[in-house]
From TrEMBL, chains A, B:
GO terms for molecular function: metal ion binding; molybdopterin molybdotransferase activity. This is Molybdopterin molybdenumtransferase. It comes from Geobacillus kaustophilus (strain HTA426). It catalyses: adenylyl-molybdopterin + molybdate = Mo-molybdopterin + AMP + H(+). Pathway: Cofactor biosynthesis; molybdopterin biosynthesis. Its EC number is 2.10.1.1.
Length: 419, 419
């Protein structure tokens, strides 16, 4: 018998899954190993930035008051009493008509309140002493980076859940985070199902195809920030399947099966869910592809039954698994980033259900243009490789034409969306 | 004395560097470890896709000719002689008014040339035999995915130099690439210089700041697809510096120093280049920030002398080092991806030289809008963390205003640009 299933809207399916998204765990890693991980706590300034008044230029520190009256015909002379590099501190306070030669980044010497850029001063020796003169006046504060003007000690700078990119790494170093609290990567178990599947290293035989979904999903798991654990292919035997799934669940935070969730006759997954006593959240969604996606929950762990069709499997991961992963990575924007784009090609098919079209978004003259990839049959196989967005066409719409504005969900934007 | 330097245009600086970009090397990794690596050879179909005529639906395979004349009032009956799952092959050829029940993905049995979708057929038993009937006719080819319609054996599908994303991983698996030839990650040595630098784990002391550039650059190296090797901080001694640089060069494909390349008095790098006999490609560029960037070449290895200023250092990496890395990863689009965007905030500063402004690009109603990050002084310190683009303002221009169209170079787009 064909099992009856009641489709629910995509938004409701996502909402039902997110109720069980759970919370993340944290771990500590050395800063040098933190690139690409997600912050488990807000990054705060542990000191004022700059930590002291400093010079943004190579030049001379002076007391601005001494420069009063300087002009093209009235140079004012200063005795250069010391030279300090970045990281050095002046040995003595600076008095009237004295100056300190200093490098970019050096601390402003006591008594000084302005910096003269090197190229505005004329330096010379006289009687074994060093002097410099200037032909314009300076005001207190000129060319000084003041302590705390970039950030005050204790100020939160970056929210937890943010991915550590090179700029964040620089901030972590600046603020002394030799060790960084990051989100633990959720462990995601993966089973492939389908008696038609050959391993990647097996030669082709009639009627069979190689298992590609497992490798695709592993890459999606890594891309989303989690850790894949591949358990191999489920056997064609209910008893063996049940025990394999039951044992895998103890080792992972969530579990994905690909394939075997169609309305076909040979699907064991509903029986496995029942025997586990799992709470099936839904088993049909009003969407294409991926309508037969099933998600169940068991002891707080999610079981994702993704379609065996590669495109449906791909979309299922991005819509339902990714936001759970990102929530565990402390993101408040766990969903794919959303944008509007202009259709760059006709899409004449009607859409009885919400349709997710593998697409490519390009910026052309500052506007986002979206085109489906794999419209030509010859490209179907490569469409996922070239897609950087899902074009989302609402159910109940007829075809769309060049120039129409459509919604796109971006696959390669790491920032995400809160809903 | 202050060394005299002659600035060259940005485009010329990039061109001079790219002359020494060199060529990549390849290595073989298991498919499972290939995510995020770059293909070292074109990915080709090793077989037709689909590899045989197959059914895209659950249903019944028939001979279309037998359905002729079927209609709402004239059902045509077929005997169901066999049931095959995906991966199975029919045991016998199909004769007139016979059908085979088959699952999505199953091979079309010999003799059949159309598939009836499950929901269009009525199935029943009679006298111990299984039958199904249909009330419409089918044409030859209906609901069949033909062998080779997605890809022909031998057809190149993905260019070398492409990053392995989940879709590419799926293709590699489909075509039996259990091992994948990928580009070796270039090894990039990193030295920090600057007597003002403290290690990230050291407490702050007057006049000093923590070394953040080394960690930032390491993350940029990883992001661009290369392997960083940090050699620590160069000592304040020319002889020791020279030997450290000379020894490091034997262990890496290229070398980065950050800091110590200013026109300040304490810079040893020009002396080191001279003693090495390195060919200095340029030591000043007509750009902000990063005008004092120096690049030299020694025995085919590039030495990048990036500024100690974090923003200049960051920009220097993306403009000069990244395209070299990507060339070694076999990309034909090694440079940052370029786009046009509309300014979302005034930028009143004049631009005597080409200016690269740390910016954030967002798609708003399908248009790219760019805003500088870190315009407010309080954000300077976090500007690199939030930037996803460099806004490029040509030298010789006055300020720009809201609504102006400007060039942006995208920092997070992996695809890149050929120039």
């Amino acid at each position: 018998m064909v099992e009856r299933r009641t489709p629910i809207p995509v938004a409701e399916a996502i909402e039902r899954v997110m109720r069980y998204a759970g919370v993340g765990e944290e771990e500590t890693v050395p800063l040098r190993q933190s690139y690409g991980r997600y912050l488990a706590e807000d990054l705060r300034a542990d000191h004022d930035v700059p930590p002291f008044d400093r010079s943004p230029y190579d030049g001379f520190a002076i007391r601005a008051a001494d420069s009063e009256g300087a002009g093209l015909d009235h140079p004012v002379e200063f005795e250069v009493i010391e030279t300090i590099g970045a990281g050095q501190v002046a040995k003595q306070p600076v008095g009237p008509f004295q100056a300190v030669r200093l490098m970019t980044g050096a601390q402003i010497p006591e008594g000084c309140d302005a910096v003269v850029m090197l190229e505005l001063a004329k330096q010379y020796e006289r009687d074994g002493k060093t002097y410099m003169s200037i032909k314009r006046s300076f005001r207190p504060g000129d060319n000084i980076s003041f302590q705390g003007e970039d950030a005050k000690k204790g100020q939160p700078l970056i929210e937890k859940g943010t991915r550590i990119n090179p700029g964040v790494a620089a901030l972590l170093a600046t603020f002394g985070y030799a060790e960084v609290k990051v989100a633990k990567r959720p462990r995601i178990g993966i089973f492939a199902t389908g008696s038609e599947l050959l391993d990647v290293s097996e030669p082709l035989v009639p009627g069979k195809i190689r298992n590609s979904n497992a490798y695709m999903i592993e890459a999606q798991v890594l891309k989303s920030g989690a850790e894949p654990i591949y358990f191999g292919q489920l056997a064609d035997d209910l008893e063996a399947c049940f025990h394999a799934v039951r044992e895998a669940l103890d080792q992972v935070d969530m579990l994905i099966t690909t394939g075997g969730v169609s309305v076909g006759d040979f699907d064991y997954l509903p029986a496995i869910y029942e025997r586990l006593g799992a709470n099936v959240l839904f088993n049909k969604i009003a969407m294409r592809p991926g309508s037969v996606t099933t998600v169940a929950e068991w002891n707080g762990k999610l079981l994702f039954g993704l379609s065996g069709n590669p495109s449906a499997c791909y979309v299922g991961y991005e819509l339902f698994v990714r936001p759970v992963v990102r929530t565990r990575l402390f993101s408040t924007k766990p969903h794919l980033k959303k944008a509007k784009a202009t259709l760059g090609a006709d899409f004449p098919k009607p859409n009885p259900f919400t349709r997710f079209v593998r697409s490519r978004v390009e910026a052309v003259d500052g506007r986002l243009i979206v085109k489906p990839v794999g419209m030509d049959k010859s490209n179907i196989v490569t469409s996922l490789a070239f897609a950087n967005a899902l074009m989302v066409l609402p159910g109940g719409t007829r075809g769309f034409a060049v120039g129409d504005e459509v919604d796109v969900w971006l696959l390669d934007d790491d920032e995400g969306s809160s809903e």
